[in-house]
Specification:
13 strands; 446 residues; TIM Barrel; two-stranded antiparallel ribbon
């Protein structure tokens, strides 16, 4: 049954993007090299994407016009540090200009530091398979925060490390295209330590510079948008890709397989990153010390996995609704994950990604309604879900799917770069303005 609902007054809604997927024009990263090797299903390349590097003013106006209160944006490491140890101040200045424009527009930025993409020079020195990656990543993070930390207080260190490892080191469908369990475990360990080192560095820099207290002033004087500064407190976390892992059948072996897959895909890495104590099979001990290395619980949620013991296989429950990529649409899973992870970690929850592939915009509005309805239930029960970032603002370069998989609230003609707001985008815009779904909105959109 579709019925009206209201979200808390302080609840913030907006959208999320990733640098490699929208900027275009950068040939110095691992994903461009992957495109050049012919690994993208529709033959397109991230070199085009949405030309956001040049169109960021137009896209920021789009965000403002749609009423988005928050925006998760990525930085392209390969632009910022094009050669090992050489940083490009002009690139950092360009990112700073974009961030200031967002704040002036009343939009609070959440900055992602690594979203699957990194410089080619890092590939040459072993990527995250090498322990040296920890030092390289911390150096990059320090440079970024020293340059934007006065106006940005919120950061995601790493996006979906489990997806990066699964696709890059188990299936081999993503760069670096390996199928090597021992290397996968090394990468898990080093990415966990990268996050912890970055978490400490961000807090240390902003505290040392006094920016924890000064962020509201910075927004007022430099960006003229104190209303966008919800808090000056430093907030750092990971965008965790979380799934529901249910057994495909009542077979005890399927039940066991589902529990094992849950731990290997998300349990072990999240425990390691949040506490500093490495968990099996990632490692043992606490190389960088134990602690609480998160200020919010970042959840990227899309679907459920139906697990079969035979072949240790991810499947889809029969007879369930699917999107264009054959992912099950299962909004109840978001409710269950939020309750579970709040019970475990006791921190504010930010839905850092949630969306669906729907080229005809046939069911996206209902998808948004269903998932935000589950969030409204959580809020009523006192679970502190504070934000929702829709994936994504506009159709983009969707990794190995190329330009064929359309997740955007805004349709993009990649040939002309024309942006056109979809009906679901207008629905979400009204939700952003009112923090609610009314009878009139149901009649109009659903």
């Amino acid at each position: 049954m579709i019925k009206p609902f209201k979200l808390p007054d302080g609840f913030l809604m907006g959208s999320a993007t990733a640098a490699t997927q929208i900027e275009g024009g950068d040939s110095n990263n691992n994903w461009f090299a992957w495109c050049e090797s012919g690994k993208i299903k529709d033959g397109t390349s991230c070199i085009r994407a949405n030309d956001h590097w040049n169109k960021y003013k137009e896209d920021t106006k789009l965000l403002k016009d749609l009423g988005h209160k928050v925006y998760r944006m990525g930085l392209e490491w390969s632009r910022i540090e094009p050669e090992n140890g050489r940083f490009d101040d002009s690139v950092m200045s360009r990112y700073r200009d974009e961030l200031i424009l967002l704040i002036r527009s009343g939009i609070r930025p959440l900055v992602t530091l690594h979203h699957f993409s990194h410089p080619l020079w890092l590939c040459d020195v072993g990527e995250f398979e090498s322990e040296k990656s920890i030092g390289y990543f911390e150096r990059y993070v320090r440079y970024v925060v020293e340059n934007i930390g006065d106006i940005v207080s919120e950061y995601i260190t790493i996006n979906e490390p489990n997806v990066y490892v699964t696709n890059g080191y188990f299936t081999g469908e993503w760069p670096p295209g390996k199928k090597d369990l021992s290397q996968a475990i090394k990468v898990y360990k080093n990415m966990a330590l990268c996050h912890i080192a970055a978490y400490k560095a961000i807090h240390e820099i902003r505290a040392r510079m006094g920016w924890d207290k000064a962020a509201d002033i910075a927004c007022t004087t430099e960006a003229h948008a104190a209303s966008a500064c919800v808090t000056s407190r430093t907030m750092v976390g990971v965008a965790n890709h979380l799934r529901i892992f249910d057994p495909y059948s009542k077979n005890p072996l399927d039940i066991i397989a589902a529990r094992v897959m849950d731990w290997l895909f998300q349990g072990a890495i999240i425990k390691s990153m949040t506490t500093g104590r490495l968990r099996f099979p990632i490692g043992f001990g606490a190389p960088l010390g134990k602690g609480r290395f998160f200020d919010f619980i970042g959840i990227n949620y899309y679907s459920r996995s139906a697990v079969r013991f035979k072949g240790f296989k991810n499947d889809v429950m029969p007879g369930t609704p699917r999107n264009d990529l054959d992912w099950e649409i299962y909004p109840e899973g978001l409710y269950m994950l939020c309750k579970d992870f709040y019970k475990k970690y006791r921190a504010p929850i930010w839905i850092t990604e949630n969306g669906t592939c729907d080229s005809k915009d046939a069911f996206r509005a209902k998808y948004i309604y269903d998932h935000l309805y589950e969030i409204s239930r959580l809020c009523e029960e006192g679970i502190p879900v504070e934000r929702y970032y829709h994936w994504t603002l506009m159709d983009n370069f969707e990794w190995v799917e190329g330009e064929s998989a359309r997740f955007g609230l805004v349709h993009v003609d990649f040939e002309t770069q024309q942006r056109t707001v979809r009906k679901s985008g207008r629905f979400f815009s009204e939700m952003c303005s009112s923090n609610s779904v009314s009878e009139e909105m149901i009649e109009k959109y659903l």
